[in-house]
Structure formats: C-alpha cells, structure tokens
Amino acid sequence: xxxxxxxxxxxxxxxxxxxxxxxxxxxxxxxxxxxxxxxxxxxxxxxxxxxxxxxxxxxxxxxxxxxxxxxxxxxxxxxxxxxxxxxxxxxxxxxxxxxxxxxxxxxxxxxxxxx
Amino acid sequence: xxxxxxxxxxxxxxxxxxxxxxxxxxxxxxxxxxxxxxxxxxxxxxxxxxxxxxxxxxxxxxxxxxxxxxxxxxxxxxxxxxxxxxxxxxxxxxxxxxxxxxxxxxxxxxx
Lengths: 115, 111
Fold this sequence. Notes:
By secondary structure, chain A is mainly β. Chain A has strands at about 5, 10-15, 20-25, 30-40, 45-50, 55-60, 65-75, 75-80, 90-95, 105, 110-115.
C-alpha cells in the first residue's frame, strides 16, 4: 500500500512557541491531504483539507490562524501550530489521497506535548 | 452533518470469543472503510466496501455493507490478543474526499 510519513513523531515545546509538523506521501503524488486531531482513546477529528497549490479548507471551529497549513507540493503538506498552549497537546495525524474518491492513507501520527 | 454511529464503544472479551462491531447512519455512503489503530500509531486500512450488500472476508474478519449503504458491520471470529486495538469505521461520499468517522470501538482481547 501507499506510504505516508510524518515528522517528527514526537515533539515537546514550550507554551507560546510554534511547532511545524510535516506530512509526506513517499511513493505517490497526493492531490489532497487531510489533517486530523485525535484525543486519547477517541476517534479522529478532521481539522482541515489541504489541496496542493491552494488554500486549505478548515472545518468549523478550527482556527485557521492558529493551525497554519501549507501544501506546497504534491508530496508534502505542513501543519504549523502557532503560539501553542497546553490545550493544543494532542495526537495529530495526516492522511493523503491520490485523487477524489480514492482511499486515504494515514501517516503514523505526531504526538505534540505543550508544557 | 453526517453522523456515523459506532457501537459498542468498548469491548473486553476472552481469547477465542466472537464479536461484532456495528456502524450505522441515516445517510447513504458511497463507500465504507474499516481501520485498525494501535496506540501511538496511525490508522491502518483493513477493508473498503462499496457495493450495497457486499461481504468481504479477511482471514478471521468479515465485513458487510448494508443493502442501503447506510450501515456496516465487522465480525471477528475466534478473537486473539493480537486483535486488540481501536477499530474505526469511516464513510465516504461519492463527491469529495472527506471521510466521516465513527466514534471508534476499543477492543481488548484477553488471553
């Protein structure tokens, strides 16, 4: 199956700083990437949909100025958590799809801890 | 808002027992995916069903898509400790990429 990587796998940062998380599709070109947030033992919550070369579409209640998404190429999308606070601590997961209607392939996730 | 109700939320069983997880919705989906996720890792796709009434088998796992494409089930026969994990169902619409996820089922199989 298709491989999606995320970097870093774990990050600890201080409150008020910004953190960038990368999502890469390693063996296919992803027209669309998705960013999810997951709380312990809970399901995935979609944060935003990212299409290459265009602005991300954010889900209701997700602050676009706090969670900056850039999809500069067909194999890379980044999520930057700006001015992070402890309540932003979570497991962030990205997924990528080859084309509309195709399956989503998930990355291994990034554990963010804000102290 | 499309909702996908998944049940049960938590299941703890003994090795060798059978179990079924359900996903139900009032909306029609063009496809239904089942994922398994282990702690600290991303979800791994188990199966995709797209045709109403479709049944797919993956070793001891049997997946079914309802005739009306509004519901799905995952049945595990003779569960093993290695089946332990979070099981997620997700529905896809014909137009667009977004998936609607169920709340998840935490399965624990005790030896």
